[in-house]
Amino acid sequence: MGGTVNTGSPERVKLHSQVINAAREIPDPYVRAVTLARIGHRLYLAGDANYGKAFSLALSAINDIDNPIVVLKAMVDVSRYLYLSGMEEKARDLLRSAHEGSLLLKGPAKDVVLLDIARGALVIGMPDEALLYSTDVQDAQKRDLIMAEIFQFYIKKGDLRRVSSLLDGVSSEDVKSRISFELFKEHLRRGEFASALRILPKIGVYYWMDSSIDEIARKLSEEGASEDVYWKFVEAIKELSMSSGRDYLTTFLIGLSLRRKVGFVTKVLNSLTDFPRAEVAKKIAITLISSPGNLEEFIRELSLPPEEFDPLARAVMDELLKGPVSPAYRGVALIIGRRTEDMAVLVKVSTYLSKIGYPEEARTFAEQIADPYLRSLAFGAIALAHLKKGDIDSAIEAAAEVRDRDWGSWLMGEILVKVVESSVGENAEEELSERAQKHKKWREDIGS
Fold it and tell me: Where is the stretch described as Disordered (predicted)?
C-alpha cells in the first residue's frame, strides 16, 4: 500500500495532524523520534501523505539527543520504520550512518550498539551489511551469536553456499554446530544428500550431532530414499562414531527402526563385524517393545549367533513379562523360543505363552529344558495356565512332566495347593517363581 495521497476523511486527516503536533511536544527526544517514526509508519499504511512529515520530524528529533549511544539506538529504530514504509534506501543510509558513528565508541557499549545495528540491518533485509557490522564486535561470544542470527537469515533466503563459506569464522563450537545443524537440515529438506554428508563432520557438539542423526532418519524415511542413499549415511555415521568415540550409529538405527525401516536396520546389523552389534540390537529391540509387528520383524530378520542372540532374547522376554501381556507378542515369543539356546530364556518363553493362553505351544519349549529347577518353572507356568481355565487334569499332567524327584514333588505340591485354593491370581507365575527360588536356596543351604 502506498502513502502518496490522503484517502481518509478530512476529519481523520485533521486528527492525524493533531497527533503529529502532540508527538512533537514529547520532552524526551529519543521517545519523540521513535514515536514520530511509528506514527509515520501508521500514516503510510493509512494512505495519509503526512507520513513524510512525521518521518522528517522523527529524524530532526534524533539531532536533539545528547547521549551518542541513544542517538545510535534511535537511528536503528527509526530505520526500521522507514524500511517498513517503503523508504528502503533512506533506511539503509541511516543504518550505515549509525554504524559509522558506532566505530567512535569505546568499551563494552560499542559492542552493544553494534549488535543492535547488525540486528537492525537484518530487519531491513541487509544481511551482508549485518555481517560486516558484526566483524567489529570485540566480544567473541556476542559476535558468534549475532553471526548465528545472520546465518539463519541466509539459510531462510536459501543462500546455503554463503553460510558454508563463512562457518569457519565462528569461534564457538556450540554455535558452529548449531548453524551446521540448520544448514544440514536445509540440505536434507532439498534432497541434497551429498551436500548434507559434507556438512555432517562439522557438527562437533554431541547434542547437535544427535539431533542431526535423528533428522537423517526422519527425512530419509519420509522421502522414500533409495537403499544406496541409506548405506552412504550408514558409512558416514560409522566413521563419525569411530572418530568421535560416540555411538551415533545406534541413534541412527533406532531412529530408522521407529520409522518402520526395520528390514534395512537388520541388514545393517547383520553386515557389521567390527561393531558391538549385539548391544545395539538389544537396544533397538527394547525400543521396539511397544510395536509388536516391528519387533517381530526385527527379531525374525536378525542373523546373530547364539552368544549374541540370547542376551537380546532374554532382555526382550524380561520386558514382555513385565506386562501387561498380550497375544500380539505371540509371534515374538515363538521366534525367540525356536532360536534361543538359553534354557532360562525358554522358561520365559513358556511362561509368556502360557500367560497369553497358549499352554500347548509353551509345552513344546518346556519339554526341551533338562535342568529340573528351570523345567519346574516352565511346566509350573503351563500348569497354572490350565488351572486358570479350570482344567485341573491338564494342570496335574503338566506338573508331572518334571521327572526329578525333588523338583517334581515340589511342583506337584504347589499345583495341588492351587487346586484346593480354587482360584489363580494374576501374578501366580511370579509367586511360583519366588517360591521356587526359596526352595532352591533351601536345598542349597542343606546341601541337597
Answer: 428-448
Q: Which three three-digit cell numbers place residue 426?
A: 494374576
SS (H, E, C) 165-192: HHHHHCCCHHHHHHHHHHHHHHHHHHCC
Alpha-carbon separation of residue 329 from 53, 284, 340 (angstroms): 77, 16, 16
The answer to whether 348 and 317 are in contact (CB under 8 A) is yes
Which pLDDT value is given to residue 1? 38
CA distance 262 to 11: 72
- Structural domain count of the chain: 1
Amino acid at 22: A
Q: Side-chain half-sphere of 410: how many Cα atoms within 13 Å?
A: 21
Distance CA 103, CA 385 (A): 84
What are residue 316's phi and psi, to 5 degrees?
A: -65, -45
Q: Do the domain assignments include residue 305?
A: no
- CA separation (Å) from 294 to 71, 97, 276, 353? 65, 63, 22, 19
Q: How far apart are CA 139 and CA 142, in angstroms?
A: 5
Alpha helices (H) in 322-427, listed in sequence order: 330-339, 343-355, 359-366, 372-388, 392-399, 405-421
Cβ 337 vs Cβ 309: under 8 Å:
no
- Read off the pLDDT of residues 77-108 as tens digits, 9 standing for 90 and up: 999 999 999 999 999 999 999 999 998 888 88
Mean pLDDT of 244-248: 85
- Radius of gyration of the chain from its Cα atoms, rounded to whole angstroms: 37
Q: Is residue 446 part of a domain?
A: yes
Phi-psi region of 354 (alpha: psi -120 to 50; beta: other; left: phi over 0): alpha
Instruction: For 334, list phi and psi in degrees, rounded to 5.
Output: -65, -45
Residue 410 is assigned to a structural domain of this protein: yes
| DSSP one-letter code for 4 | S
With 0-12 / 13-18 / 19 or more C-beta atoms within 10 angstroms meaning exposed / middle / buried, residue 82 is: buried
Is the predicted pLDDT of residue 311 greater than 90, yes or no?
A: yes
Q: Are 298 and 329 in contact (CB under 8 A)?
A: no
CB of 408 within 8 A of CB of 402? Answer: yes
Contacts of 387 (CB under 8 A, 6+ apart): 395, 415, 418, 419, 424
**Which DSSP letter does residue 65 get?**
-
Does a structural domain hold residue 442? yes
Map grid coordinates 490522503 to a residue. 6
Residue 249's contacts (CB-CB under 8 Å, 6 or more residues apart) are 234, 237, 238, 241, 275, 280
Closest by Cα among 396, 390, 340, 391 to 369 = 340
C-alpha 252/C-alpha 241 separation (Å) is 11
Structural domain containing residue 418: 365-448
